[in-house]
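Action item from last meeting closed. Structure (462 res):
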């Protein structure tokens, strides 16, 4: 007997799922978890008045949560949403990678649904992407080049560079590298790799209160650079000989357990949201800004940007056929998102977007030209928690204060300053403002534009 019509359309729907694997990436504290939580909130209860999509009348209907792929734990959505709404606190700092997958039905796609897959990870791991697909020697070279050539990093590196040039014993080299990374933490320098120094593979995060009280000696004595105490490693020059093969073994173990799973997931993304907290960059100063750029360029160098197979074919037939480095499914779209825009006065949002545009790496522009990659910039606040009053005043709830406060926030410069010490700019942290009712998504700035772009819903972008 022929299957009833409804069953047939149901089957068709299942076949016609459009997979969107969205990598939400950014440094630690760039706003990934808050963004992911707000996004899921909007998708679960889509209200086109709060998040207009397509021509403004498109609705998304939540069909089901789907099992995660690759054995990752599920993103703790309910816990994060309750922190925002009930506890009025921001979600906790992420210490483990997690995934969220769901099926959505789009009102303008009668026979296709959207299989959306998201990932959240500790931002510290981004610094380790300099290991993805690279040998210990290559990773060492890239770290040592940073220490030799980038002034803010070089300023701390004399002792380490002198030591690795001599035949010092391994324990001395490891202690010196830990000391160096401790200084980086104190100087807001984000190239801290291996990132186990800050977040261990089992999710133990550095005790910042203790660091603030005891300083670098606490980190140097208690944090590890490797999977455990016995398998630590540090970058070595080519001349290092015997020791290099021991560190190489430790490096490979670390890469396989900590870096490769994340790198694999990211390299299978179809869409990327790169979250950049411009206020954090301005407060962090030149060394922080240079470190962010470096971490992003390692991330992008690991991904296939664009999806035009014939360009890859023309480039290198052997690589194309092996499908190892150049995949048919590369990244289709990248949204560069200036997050937490509510911490910046709304009159400065145009300047914010201008600064963000300046951070787009050339590799992205090349891939747009050669391989059909689409990219755009957005100014967003996933959980908008302030009100802009007369420039430069904001109104919001501040930690440790009763009720709402009115306070000034720094003005955003029209260009990136040529040289910038840390903490010249200050953008106060505020408490979140989100409805207690879990089903009502928080107020946002610009999230709809970014989501329209990422889900391919903006005009001709379908
Ligand atoms: N005002 C405002 N602050 C935000 C917003 N999103 C995040 N924040 C602030 O930024 C902090 C970090 O946000 P998270 O979402 O935890 O950042 P993350 O990128 O997940 O950080 P890691 O877990 O360390 O990788 C929060 O604790 C808030 O203080 C926002 O939309 N508005
Ligand atoms: Mg997080």
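Sequence:
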């Amino acid at each position: 007997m022929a299957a009833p019509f409804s069953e047939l359309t149901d089957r068709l729907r299942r076949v016609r799922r459009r997979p969107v694997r969205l990598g939400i990436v950014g440094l630690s504290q760039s706003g990934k978890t808050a963004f992911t939580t707000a996004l899921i909130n909007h998708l679960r209860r889509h209200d086109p008045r709060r998040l207009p999509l397509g021509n403004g009348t498109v609705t998304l209907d939540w069909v089901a949560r789907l099992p995660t792929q690759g054995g990752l734990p599920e993103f703790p959505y309910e816990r994060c949403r309750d922190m925002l709404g009930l506890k009025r606190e921001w979600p906790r700092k992420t210490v483990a990678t997690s995934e969220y997958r769901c099926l959505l039905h789009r009102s303008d796609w009668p026979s296709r649904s959207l299989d959306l897959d998201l990932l959240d990870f500790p931002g510290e791991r981004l610094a380790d992407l300099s290991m993805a697909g690279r040998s210990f020697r290559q990773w060492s070279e890239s770290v040592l080049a940073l220490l030799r050539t980038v002034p803010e990093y070089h300023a701390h590196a004399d002792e380490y560079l002198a030591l690795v040039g001599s035949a010092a014993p391994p324990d001395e080299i490891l202690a010196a590298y830990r000391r160096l990374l401790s200084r980086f933490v104190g100087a807001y320098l984000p190239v801290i790799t291996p990132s186990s120094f800050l977040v261990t593979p089992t999710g133990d995060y550095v005790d910042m209160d203790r660091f603030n009280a005891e300083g670098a000696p606490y980190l140097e004595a208690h944090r590890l650079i490797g999977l455990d105490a016995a398998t630590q490693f540090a970058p070595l020059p080519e001349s290092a000989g015997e020791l290099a093969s021991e560190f190489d073994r430790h490096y490979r173990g670390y890469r396989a357990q900590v870096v490769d799973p994340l790198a694999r997931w990211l390299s299978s993304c179809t869409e990327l949201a790169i979250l950049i907290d411009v206020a954090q960059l301005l407060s962090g100063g030149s060394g922080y800004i240079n470190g962010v750029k470096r971490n992003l360029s390692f991330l992008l160098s690991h991904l296939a940007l664009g999806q035009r197979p014939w360009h890859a074919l023309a480039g290198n037939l052997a690589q194309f056929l092996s499908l190892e480095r150049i995949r048919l499914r590369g990244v289709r779209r990248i949204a560069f998102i200036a997050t937490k825009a509510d911490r910046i006065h709304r009159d400065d949002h145009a300047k914010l977007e201008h600064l963000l545009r300046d951070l787009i790496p050339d590799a992205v522009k090349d891939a747009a030209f050669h391989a059909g990659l689409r990219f755009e910039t957005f100014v967003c606040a996933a959980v908008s928690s302030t009100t802009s009053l007369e420039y430069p005043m904001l109104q919001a709830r501040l930690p440790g204060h009763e009720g709402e406060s009115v306070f000034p926030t720094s003005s955003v410069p029209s260009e990136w300053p040529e040289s910038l010490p840390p903490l010249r700019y200050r953008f106060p942290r505020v408490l979140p403002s989100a409805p207690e009712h879990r089903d009502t998504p928080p107020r946002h700035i610009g999230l709809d534009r970014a989501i329209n772009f990422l889900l391919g819903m903006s005009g001709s972008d379908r």
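Note appended to the action item: Residues 242-267 form the longest helix (26 residues).
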